[in-house]
Design brief:
29 strands; 506 residues; 5-stranded antiparallel β-sheet; alpha+beta; Copper Amine Oxidase, Chain A, domain 1; 13 helices; elongated
């Protein structure tokens, strides 16, 4: 729960954006017959080709120049062919761009030039200038190099371009759906320009969330987890497992940059077969004595992504000294998944920091521009529709002093409640219920009211063959401002085991 406030929604929205392809389906959108080697989906619309069709050439996706540029808002009258230089040019008026030397976004025409057989192409924005000695401002032309060059298909006499890099240079998102064999091209700015949704409720929520990062916080609370397993085995008979894990914790949170978490927990379990307690027999000579008491501490620098964990009370069982700390490089792990997440850890942190000083609409734009597109059912427009179904003002209905948004799809219901005092958000709750076909169900409630956290989860799995698993978890926490700073490094002299590397001595 602390992550929600540390990152001001960025991580949560990113997760939602990545998961949309498995949740949203364009059921009312018929899929046309494929033309050429692959589909092209531009701004959530399948592109229809009249003569020249998509080709795969030298393992690159190549598209007919005129057809795909038209789909992205370039008028055919603004496309030219210079036979002498074998150069194609396309211009689109009044686009928004960031100047070459930085600064505020501007409006101006964009011109793309590609030469047949050349791996280099250029992009030029009207008004994008840089100072030159003696002559003053000169127009900036940005050159890019592609692995493949434009070519003319002899069968159709049409110009083809390796569109992936060109689209990226123009600021479009490009993805590939391997299952459907489809190239996905999204002009996020154009999609957002057509978005009529407003987000006053989410702006008010973010103002509430911001109060937990403006000052360092100390959080104290408790948690309890209960696991109950009932099964029937043909050889050994009925078996029951009752296990509990509970404890109290203290967390020090320094804005969005650092955290220290300490807890003393107690673990206990009872295993019965045919009604007989066999717990100790199963434990044997492992040295484990129940109930088991453990002290766990987490120290982390969120900015760098380096986290350290220590567990005290397991040395008799593991042979590892209690003074040992385990290092986890979350930045490295996240960066290794960048092909799936669509962004690096540093980018995620930048988005998180930016969200603290901007409205929800800008945060949403940042998320949509960085979320990957890997499915024809998970385009930028699909992601925006799904988020709007939950978070746009039109999705919230007034209930007393609260505002409630509810979404039901594929057997899952999510209810998002914002608690108000006057015109200010003073709390929230997320309730989720999901049926897992015939296997069981899950319910979850997470909420804050003023400065108090409460979370509950119940998870049930029934395989229909005599095996039933029930897991329930509860957690609470009270937030208060503090001057105490978290420790982010293990104590001096501690032995550090890098979970992704070698043992370090300190």
């Amino acid at each position: 729960m602390k992550n929600v406030f540390r990152t001001a929604l960025c991580t949560a929205l990113m997760t939602a954006a990545v998961c949309v392809p498995t949740f949203a389906v364009k059921a009312d959108a018929p899929v046309p017959a494929r033309q050429g080697d692959f589909y092209v989906l531009a701004n959530d619309q399948y592109v229809t080709f009249t003569d020249a069709v998509p080709q795969i050439r030298n393992s690159r996706s190549c598209l007919p120049f005129v057809a795909v540029f038209q789909q992205l808002g370039f008028a055919e009258k603004d496309m030219t062919w210079d036979a002498a230089t074998r150069t194609v040019t396309a211009t689109k008026p009044d686009v928004t761009y960031t100047p070459f030397n930085g600064g505020e976004p501007r409006q101006g025409d964009v011109t793309v030039r590609l030469t047949i057989g050349s791996n280099t192409f250029s992009v030029q924005y009207e008004g994008d200038t840089t100072a030159a000695p003696m002559t003053g401002a000169t127009q900036v032309s940005r050159d890019y190099t592609s692995e493949a060059a434009p070519y003319i298909d002899p069968a159709t006499n049409r110009t083809y371009v390796p569109f992936g890099l060109v689209a990226d240079a123009l600021g479009y998102k490009v993805g590939w759906d391997a299952g459907q064999k489809a190239v996905i091209i999204d002009d996020v700015d154009a999609i957002l320009a057509d978005n009529q949704a407003t987000y006053q409720r989410m702006d008010e929520y973010m103002a509430y969330a911001k109060t937990f990062t403006q000052q360092d916080q100390k959080v104290t609370g408790s948690y309890n987890a209960v696991l109950d397993v009932d099964s029937e085995d043909a050889d050994i008979g009925p078996m029951n497992v009752d296990a509990t894990l509970k404890g109290d914790y203290t967390m020090i949170q320094q804005g969005q940059s650092a955290v220290q978490f300490k807890t003393g927990m107690t673990a206990d379990a009872k295993i019965a077969i045919n009604g007989q307690d066999v717990t100790q027999a199963i434990l044997g000579d492992t040295g484990v004595k129940l109930p088991l008491s453990l002290d766990v501490e987490l120290r982390g620098d969120v900015t760098s992504g380096l986290f350290y964990v220590n567990m005290t009370g397991l040395s008799d069982l593991t042979g590892i000294p209690d003074q040992t700390w385990y290092k986890m490089d979350l930045k490295s792990m996240f960066d290794q998944m960048s092909d799936t997440t669509g962004m690096s850890y540093d980018t995620l942190m930048q988005l998180s920091a930016a969200s603290a000083d901007q409205g929800f609409q800008q945060t949403l734009a940042d998320i949509l521009k960085n979320a990957p597109v890997t499915s024809v059912n998970g385009t930028t427009a699909d992601t925006l529709r799904q988020l709007n179904d939950m978070l746009a003002d039109s999705s919230f209905k007034k209930s007393g002093s609260d505002y409630v948004s509810t979404m039901t799809e594929d057997g899952a219901t999510v209810k998002f409640t914002l608690n108000y005092s006057g015109n200010k958000v003073v709390g929230y709750a997320v309730d989720m219920k999901a049926d897992m076909d015939d296997m069981g169900s899950m319910t979850m409630t997470v909420g804050m009211k003023d400065k108090t956290l409460n979370a509950n989860m119940a998870f049930t799995v029934d395989d229909g063959e005599g095996s039933l698993v029930k897991l329930t978890m509860t957690m609470d926490g009270a937030y208060q401002a503090t001057s105490q700073k978290p420790n982010t490094q293990p104590p001096a002299g501690a032995q550090i085991v890098d979970l992704l590397g070698d043992v370090e001595g300190r």
